[in-house]
Amino acid sequence: MTTRDFNIAQPSEKQILQPPADFPGSYPEYITFVSLLRLGKRPDVDFIYQSRQMGGRIDKGGLVIDFSFIDPPDLAINIQGVYYHYEQGSVNIAKDLIAREQLASQGVTLIFVDDIDLEQNPEYFIREALNYRDHSRIGAG
């Protein structure tokens, strides 16, 4: 995906960004993608969307990171849907914390961004994530 594939104009307060039909992720991931573009980040230059790590979902112990950064190379961001990641029990939270530890063992900081925060102020929370600040429910704070 390239920046020309997305309308990155600033929406009015009542306008809701709509992902293109071929966008492969969730709506909160699309909001994050657009926010990164607005903050000057470029796909496949500064970040990789849905980056497979350690074999991806195919290999046991592998994972897919929502946003893995080339610049800076020690940062990754995962978007946390409140329903799936928090309200479906402790197993999903444990998987997220294990993913954080797996990446930390490779020198990468995994920042979680909650989807409800993206609804309030996406660029603020993405800017914070780019500065290694995690405001999520399970983040370091």
Model description:
With 141 residues, the protein is of the alpha+beta class. It has one domain: Endonuclease, Chain A, CATH 3.40.960.10. It is built from 5 helices and 4 strands; from the N terminus they run H-E-E-E-H-H-E-H-H. It has a 4-stranded mixed sheet with strand order 1-2-3-4, sandwiched between helices. The longest helix has 15 residues. The chain is globular.
Q: Name the helix and strand elements from N-terminus to C-terminus, one letter apiece.
A: HEEEHHEHH
Poorly predicted runs: 8-15, 55-59
Query: Helicity range of the residues?
Result: 25-40%
Report the principal-axis shape: globular
What summary fits the major beta sheet? 4 strands, mixed
Entry keywords:
141 residues; alpha+beta; Endonuclease, Chain A; 4 strands
SSE blueprint and pairings:
Blueprint: H1 27-38, E1 47-53, E2 63-69, E3 75-80, H2 82-86, H3 90-104, E4 109-114, H4 115-120, H5 122-130
Parallel strand pairs: 3-4
Antiparallel strand pairs: 1-2, 2-3
